[in-house]
Design goal:
The structure is a single chain. The chain is an alpha/beta fold. The protein has two domains: 4-116, Response regulator (Rossmann fold, 3-Layer(aba) Sandwich); 124-224, Orthogonal Bundle (Arc Repressor Mutant, subunit A). The protein has helices at residues 12-24, 35-45, 61-64, 82-90, 103-116, 150-161, 169-175, 185-203, 221-224, and strands at 4-8, 28-32, 49-52, 73-77, 95-98, 124-127, 130-133, 138-141, 144-147, 167-168, 208-211, 215-218. The strands form three sheets. It has a five-stranded parallel β-sheet, sandwiched between helices. A four-stranded antiparallel β-sheet has the order 6-7-8-9, with helices on one face. The chain has a three-stranded antiparallel β-sheet with strand order 10-12-11. Helix 1 links the parallel strand 1 and strand 2.
Length: 226
């Protein structure tokens, strides 16, 4: 699967140029045009690398940077002050490129950072604002957290890996059997019910939808907030 790069820049011509160049190199590209839009897109986009402008509407790039965890960020900005660069590199940026830039140099920096990037933490999953840490078996929405049983964690992980899809009861039993051999057809309904109740405690919403006679699906954030 091609590496995924998120461009956060409200300058449309520059964003278009970056997107075209990165696509030609075989990368998958997505775009965000403000700091606020970027923070909403990050959990679902789950990019391998971020190109971040600083002069953004809404949240500035300096405010967005510390909120990007576990993903290398190359700052692309017209700010040339050395102290700005030092502060951003110390604040978590993997690299800093000054506008205007040579596209060949930027592509080389992207390739280097992707080679150096650590393997993704496969124990953490996100779907919109809903997050799951499979190591600690903790589901979270913002600052609120709830602990899950081993079976509940396995079910939620499966649903988050297959968002918007209805997963049949037999598929759930088959695909979580290695993690939870004690889950049976008769107990599955109880486990899902308990999981739905715990997620409801986080924000009062139903995140899991029962599809009558078939199975279950994770509701999208848009559906949840309707």
């Amino acid at each position: 699967m091609p590496k995924h790069i998120l461009i956060i820049d409200d300058d449309v011509p520059i964003g278009d140029m970056l997107s075209e160049a990165l696509t030609r190199e075989g990368y998958r590209v997505s775009r965000a045009y403000s700091g606020t839009e970027a923070l909403l897109a990050l959990p679902q986009a789950r990019p391998d690398l971020v190109l971040l402008d600083l002069m953004l509407p809404g949240l500035a790039g300096e405010e967005v940077l510390p909120k990007i965890k576990g993903i290398p960020v190359i700052v692309v900005s017209a700010k040339v002050d050395v102290q700005d660069k030092v502060d951003l590199l110390l604040g978590g940026a993997a690299d800093y490129v000054t506008k205007p830039f040579e596209i060949k140099e930027l592509l080389a920096r992207v390739a280097v950072r992707l080679r150096q990037a650590p393997a993704p933490d496969v124990a953490r999953f996100a779907f919109g604002p809903l997050e799951l840490d499979a190591d600690t078996r903790t589901a979270a929405l913002g600052e609120r957290q709830v602990r899950l049983t081993r079976t509940e964690c396995a079910i939620l992980k499966l649903l988050m890996l297959n968002p918007r899809q209805v997963i049949t009861k037999s598929q759930i039993l088959d695909r979580i059997s290695l993690d939870t051999p004690d889950c049976t057809e008769s107990s599955l309904k109880m486990h899902v019910s308990n999981l739905r109740k715990k997620l409801r405690e986080l924000d009062g919403n139903d995140w899991i939808e029962a599809v009558w006679g078939i199975g279950f699906k994770l509701r999208t954030p848009e559906e949840v907030l309707q």
